[in-house]
Amino acid sequence: MIDSNQSTEKQKRKSTRILIAEPDSDIHVLYTLFIKQYGFSIPDVKVVQNGNKCLEIIHSSREDNHENNDDYDIFIVDTHLRDISGFEVARKIRDRLPHKRIILTTTYSLDNISSMINSIGIKSQDVLFKPFSFSDFVSILKEPGMSYN
Length: 149
Known about the structure:
The chain is α/β, with parallel strands linked by helices. It is built from six helices and five strands, in the order αβαβαβαβαβα. The protein has helices at 4-15, 25-38, 51-64, 86-96, 110-120, 134-142; strands at residues 18-21, 45-48, 74-78, 101-106, 127-129. Strands 2-1-3-4-5 form a five-stranded parallel beta sheet, with helices on both faces.
């Protein structure tokens, strides 16, 4: 028997839309597997290889939905994008959509990026350090608080 808390969490996962900017196509496959295993439907997750494509999607969805700029609930951005810094992408997302959740993935240490993430308004709990496990990924997605700043 499924209790109401499990049912509510599953409903929330199904309705959550995620946009991922990750340059490594092998990691795209892992994200897809992780997200599917966690209970998200794949059409609710979009993975792009660069920052400009991520920002283009955000810009076009804002124009298409004049009153509803809430296409994506969570943005997962790698700091090592090939075309534009992941930090810059995160900053632009934060500027356009200040209450959306941004999760950074990185190989940098927290000491090296703490001032940068603080200036963007990203909490240290919303940084995944590569390599990370499925359980780390699920834990960060389960963190409450979609609204920041």
